Amino acid sequence: MSAIIIDRPTADGTVLECEARATADLERFLTGEPFRTEYDVSIEGVPEGVLAIPVLAQVCPVAWANGADVYVEAVDATFARGLEDVEAALCGMYDFLEGGTLYARRTIDPEPEAGGESGLLFTGGVDSTCSYVRHREESPTLISVRGWTITPDPADDGKWRQLTDRVSAFAAERDLETAFLESNMLSFLDHPMLLAHYKRHVDGAWYSSVGHGLGLLGLCAPMAYARGIEDLYVAATHWEGIDLEWGSRPDVDDNVRWAGTRCHHDGYELTRQERLDAIADYVRTDAPALELQTCNVRMDGNCGRCEKCYRTAVGLRLSGLEPTEHGYPFSDPEYARIRAALEGGEWELGQDERYMWADIRERAREVEPASASERAFFEWLEAADLDELVSESGPPLSHRLLRAGARNAPSGVYNRLYPAWTAARSGLRLVRSNR
Question: Which is more confidently placed, 375 or 397?
Answer without folding.
Answer: 375
